[in-house]
Amino acid sequence: MASTNIFLIFLLAALIVTPVVVAQLVSIRISGVVLCSVNGNLDVINGLTPQVFSNASVQLRCGTRNVVSSTITNGSGVFSLVVDPRVNTLLLLLLNCRLVVATPLSTCNASLPSVGLLASSLNLVNIGIGGVGGRINIGLGPTGFILNINLIF
Ligand SMILES: *[C@@H]1O[C@H](CO)[C@@H](O)[C@H](O)[C@H]1NC(C)=O
Ligand SMILES: *[C@@H]1O[C@H](CO)[C@@H](O)[C@H](O)[C@H]1NC(C)=O
Ligand SMILES: *[C@@H]1O[C@H](CO)[C@@H](O)[C@H](O)[C@H]1NC(C)=O
């Protein structure tokens, strides 16, 4: 197990410095679920699970405001984005990018705020090798969506 991890670290380090090769070898997918909630948590007082937030616009924003990619959640609140690993290296994604839900929470539940947007940073969910030519499939996901009242479209 330890040797596998060391191998992957070396592999990722090598891939970060050779962007042309990366495009053919690496696939990075960002996916997750958006809930109709200011913090994604259970409603402890009432013991309710938040509803899913369907038809919500999910943006990948890097740097201060730059929208790199976007998609819409499906009927289960699920979104999935594939990014170009040459432009959006794993390191940049983890350090400099975040997910922003550009649809206000009041859209899914009128009693939730119409000001501010949900946002989350990214973390590594899984890494695997598979498919034709042994592509490295990197899966990233949100650390947790939290309402940020300073965020605008
Ligand atoms: C989501 O969008 C589809 C197509 O525009 C629409 O038919 C559906 O009613 C919407 N669902 C919700 C929960 O807004
Ligand atoms: C939403 O996408 C997920 C993942 O692809 C899928 O499992 C789920 O069935 C989809 N839900 C709807 C309502 O399409
Ligand atoms: C809407 O949000 C309020 C406040 O969080 C909650 O009490 C209510 O159950 C939500 N409504 C639905 C339909 O989920």
Please give the structural blueprint.
Blueprint: H1 2-17, H2 19-25, E1 26-33, E2 57-62, E3 66-72, E4 78-83, H3 90-96, E5 97-101, E6 117-130, E7 135-142, E8 146-148
Parallel strand pairs: 1-7
Antiparallel strand pairs: 1-4, 2-3, 2-5, 5-6, 6-7, 6-8
This protein binds 2-acetamido-2-deoxy-beta-D-glucopyranose (3 copies).
Overall strand count: 8
Largest sheet: 8 strands, mixed
Number of helices: 3
Strand/helix succession: HHEEEEHEEEE
Uncertain segments: none
Structural class, by secondary structure, is alpha+beta
Give the names of the bound compounds: 2-acetamido-2-deoxy-beta-D-glucopyranose
Name the features:
153 residues; alpha+beta; 8-stranded mixed β-sheet; 3 helices; elongated; binds 2-acetamido-2-deoxy-beta-D-glucopyranose
Provide a compact summary of the structure.
With 153 residues, the chain is α+β, with helices and mostly antiparallel strands. It contains three helices and eight strands, in the order ααββββαββββ. 20% of the residues lie in helices and 37% in strands.
How would you describe what is shown here?
The protein is built from 3 helices and 8 strands; from the N terminus they run ααββββαββββ. With 153 residues, the protein is α+β, with helices and mostly antiparallel strands. A hairpin with a 4-residue loop joins strand 6 (117-130) and strand 7 (135-142). The termini are far apart. The model has no long low-confidence stretch (mean pLDDT 86). It binds 2-acetamido-2-deoxy-beta-D-glucopyranose (3 copies). One 2-acetamido-2-deoxy-beta-D-glucopyranose binds next to loops.
